[in-house]
């Protein structure tokens, strides 16, 4: 709960800190004189920076519950009529861009993005981007559920080469209905998840979002598992020379569990993650030895430079993979070069 000290002030010093102490906030916790300023900060903490130009009606009431989960922000909101906008000043104050997936449970909300005006009524699914100058108006009491997703987390899975400013989707059939049910379920179970659940929730949300947007724009999205695999492999290749590279490190850097990392590689490569890493290292050692220069770097130096830390183990693995010891392979490569 917000302390009575915070409620008496016209504006909290740190709205994110204020929100972080509780899972719920309501106008009942704030004096009438502080209501407009406090509502502005609550909106910014949950939906990015917005300017609320009009004073709120004295009978304005709002209630929110919210949570960070797996890099997502889940928000359920009940509020009375109000309005606001995001122009250049507000856009410049956002630390990172977001996409919002919003399900209107009751009431209506009107958004103007550029020259286009969209209206979402009860049962509609609304997707909007924090990158665009936007105005909103809530003409009547509104109940909505929202998931805020960092754009960087979803960008690779949205249709490439096509601008996406947002849209309203009827949520009664198809993938939009599935996404709507997903948003509703996450927000309804907001208190039931742990951080491991959060990673799964994030993956599912991004996949459903990408599919809904792609269908709207007539595109075919990249399967999410393929995208996750590519990112994990890119990270591995960047750190391939590091002998201390671990599966836990790879998973953490890519926002997934070690179990999901194993599943990705098993399904796509028919190999375990460690086997795939070892194969990449062996191939690069083989390439280095294939120059056939006998007075070049020591075999042990080559092995160690590609992440192996035991010379005998490397030799056994190399012979098992290529049918020759590293020294025999290098000597044969040298003879082949001489013959050429």
Structure in words:
- The protein has helices at residues 4-8, 15-20, 35-47, 88-92, 151-154, 174-188, 195-217, 224-238, 247-253, 258-269, 273-289, 299-305, 311-322, 326-339, and strands at residues 24-26, 62-69, 72-79, 82-86, 98-106, 108-113, 116-121, 124-129, 134-138, 142-150, 166-170.
- With 340 residues, it is α+β, with helices and mostly antiparallel strands.
- It folds into 2 domains: 4-221, Jelly Rolls (Sandwich); 225-339, Arc Repressor Mutant, subunit A (Orthogonal Bundle).
- It is elongated and about 90 Å long.
Q: How is this fold's topology laid out?
A:
Elements: H1 4-8, H2 15-20, E1 24-26, H3 35-47, E2 62-69, E3 72-79, E4 82-86, H4 88-92, E5 98-106, E6 108-113, E7 116-121, E8 124-129, E9 134-138, E10 142-150, H5 151-154, E11 166-170, H6 174-188, H7 195-217, H8 224-238, H9 247-253, H10 258-269, H11 273-289, H12 299-305, H13 311-322, H14 326-339
Helix pairs in contact: 6-7, 8-10
Question: Superfamily at the CATH H level of the largest domain?
Answer: Jelly Rolls
Largest sheet, strands/sense/barrel? 7 strands, antiparallel
Strand order of the largest sheet: 1-2-3-10-5-8-11
Number of helices, where a helix is a run of at least 4 consecutive DSSP H or I residues: 14
Strand proportion: 15-25%
The helix-strand sequence is: HHEHEEEHEEEEEEHEHHHHHHHHH
User: Globular, elongated, flat, extended or rod-shaped: what is the shape?
Assistant: elongated
Query: Do you know the CATH architecture of the largest domain?
Result: Sandwich
**Multimeric organization:** single chain
CATH topology of the largest domain: Jelly Rolls
Mean pLDDT: 82
Q: Output the radius of gyration.
A: 27 Å
CATH secondary-structure class of the largest domain: Mainly Beta
InterPro entries: AraC-bd_2 (IPR035418), AraC_XylS_family_regulators (IPR050204), Homeodomain-like_sf (IPR009057), HTH_AraC (IPR018060), Tscrpt_reg_AraC-type_HTH (IPR020449)
Keywords: DNA-binding, Transcription, Transcription regulation
GO molecular function: DNA-binding transcription factor activity; sequence-specific DNA binding
Organism: Vineibacter terrae
